[in-house]
Amino acid sequence: MKPTLFVLAAGMGSRYGGLKQLDGLGPNGETIMDYSVYDAIQAGFGKIVFVIRKDFEADFREKVLKKYEGVVPVEVVFQAIDKLPEGYTCPADRTKPWGTNHAVLMGKDVIKEPFAVINADDFYGRDAFRVIAEELQRPRDRKGDYCMVGFRVGNTMTENGSVARGVCENKDGLLTSVVERTAISYDKDHNIVFTDENGQEQTLAPNTPVSMNLWGFTPDYFEFSEREFRNFLDRDINTPKAEFFIPLCIDALINSGEATVKVLDTDSRWFGVTYSADRPGVVEKFAELHANGTYPSPLFGK
After folding, report:
1. Could you tell me which residues come within 8 angstroms of residue 163 by beta carbon, excluding any fewer than 6 positions away?
2. Which of 98, 139, 156, 253 could form a disulfide with 259 if both were Cys (CB 3.0 to 4.6 A apart)?
């Protein structure tokens, strides 16, 4: 069974400004997620599901989905802050979305096969899709048999500021924890550093695995997620900025022994438009990838 690619495209790019998911960065106006869709198809994915917000559906269908007609089956689901499990009511003053794992839950009615989750505004690279597609097509005999692609932190940096990354710790190839580090940057000697919870500067080796939100799940993940989301709401429904992130759910499942997450290595170089100053460099990289034949022009032959 071919896996599905689930694209999280409901967020606004607050640091960048505007809907960066719809920003044409390739030489023919391709968006970053167009490249992810192309690479996923090449790797063996059979369907694409997008989670978006209802308020930009028309723009999204016109600017993005038209390109995929006749190329790959596509479905769209919607994230909204009032989409909560039965018995819960969204607080009237809540304006912030409920987070990435809430977005994942929006796919439960349309995804019935193994699936990978990605951010819409990150370029992951062909090798990353290859390794996760291979892993998702492996036979499984239990629930909670998941995976993630661990990018080497040195392949995920920007020269234009700090980045947030989930630093992964693993034992025997299985994830033990993801610690969110919110301000990883280069120091004056080009070492990769962050400040820990005690205010101490720490250095990360360039090959340290980090999560770029490229996860691999089977449909039983929706059951676990709904339960954990209820637990989250019981604790934090009235905390205006609390979010239900994928690592939060994963951490609970690892700690309970209900899931294992295999950490897959890739030599892919991540890039994305975290800051507006990143945009020219990304445009240049895509132009190079078309010029050297990595990608055809236009990407989907239309």
Report:
1. 156, 157, 184, 185, 274
2. 253
